[in-house]
Amino acid sequence: MAASEYSTGLESVEAESQYLHVLSAFLAMEPVDSVISLARGCTGGSITDNVQRFLWEICVKSAVNGNASYAKKLLKRLINEVELENGEVLDEVYEEYALHMSAPSKENILVKDNIRITKFISFLFPDGSYEHPSCPKSGKLVIPMRCSLNMFEGDTGCSIWPSSLFLSEFVLSYPDLFANKSCFEVGSGAGLVGICLAHVKAKKVILTDGDLLTLTNMKLNLERNRLNYDDELLKEPGEAQSTRVKCIHLPWETASESKLSKYRPDIILGADVIYDLSCLPHLLRVLVALLRRPAKRESGSLETEDRDTAQDGRSSPVVAYIASVIRNADTFNAFLVLVDQMDLSITDLTGELKPPLELLPYMHSYDRSSIRLFSISPR
């Protein structure tokens, strides 16, 4: 059943899009309060039978992410909200909640063993943007992401962080910056940015992470999104690259300059990589090696490619785009000092290149205003 079927009697197109926002928020596992708030917005503030039926039948009963714990929390909050308003809860909603209550609880297992769940991140292109190069015919790009709920306790690489959402919006908003370019991401985590780079037709997408479990999860996400990739760990020495997406195990502490010099990207990206003071020297060393342009091409190398050239015959400059929430001023200031010491130039592009398309309007937990976008280049 389509979301628009629940907007019967609501004449505006906006009403239909509001129901889509509710479904998108549920599939992205937004806080249940946000889902209920969006549902209220569909009917001017009240939780009608229509809203209850939508949350039950479309969001919970037909849920494709299979996270029973989250569905149970939503149903409980829905019942509480309706009862507080002295409304009548639909029998189907009570029955669905009873089914979830009788099922074995897996919440403790989820926290203890870092079991992965699937979020569906829906990038919703606003009306009037259907001619935009990255806009699908349906007007939405839905990306299933296998990730962890345990964001702060040892499973950070498998979580979806705000800056990765911002950088994904940035890629989708400015596809011409990345199309036909070789893109290299440091600290790719769950792989959301890389999937968006593949969507806008980047010539090569190199995704890296220093944690092997995170890298394994990233590869599963690429497979979920029907992207073929080269696996460096399974590749025989001298074997040629066959696909434009590549996964690399790259601990910053041990990455050699000779290895990094082979990749020669046009664009480097990083989301929320400015977080640990002890890691910053290693991160900057990696960035310097990737930003440095070799004097000449290494003939016969399978990893090197000529960069795009300008009309005057010179190669276009290499640039790194780093999106970050500034959580600790001292850590960020230390990063700026290291940037200067390594003879790099950093520019705050937040105002100039803020993604013009708000593709995640339903995601109340995502605060775009808290994120800054920087470009880093050689002086």
What's the quick description here?
The protein is α/β, with parallel strands linked by helices and 379 residues long.
Describe the structure.
This protein is an alpha/beta fold and 379 residues long. It folds into 2 domains: 3-105, no CATH class; 151-378, Vaccinia Virus protein VP39 (Rossmann fold, 3-Layer(aba) Sandwich). It has helices spanning 13-27, 32-41, 49-61, 68-84, 91-102, 107-113, 162-173, 175-178, 192-199, 212-224, 257-260, 280-291, 329-341, and strands spanning 117-124, 140-147, 182-186, 204-209, 230-231, 245-249, 267-271, 319-325, 344-348, 371-378. The chain has an 8-stranded mixed sheet, with helices on both faces. A two-stranded antiparallel ribbon has the order 1-2. The radius of gyration is 23 Å and the shape is elongated. The model is unreliable at 4-13, 107-113, 236-242, 296-306 and 310-314 (pLDDT under 50).
Mind sketching the topology for me?
Blueprint lengths: L12 H15 L4 H10 L7 H13 L6 H17 L6 H12 L4 H7 L3 E8 L15 E8 L14 H12 L1 H4 L3 E5 L5 H8 L4 E6 L2 H13 L5 E2 L13 E5 L7 H4 L6 E5 L8 H12 L27 E7 L3 H13 L2 E5 L22 E8 L1
Helix pairs in contact: 1-2, 1-3, 2-4, 3-4, 4-5, 7-9
InterPro entries: Methyltransf_16, SAM-dependent_MTases_sf
Organism: Microthlaspi erraticum
Protein name: FAM86 N-terminal domain-containing protein
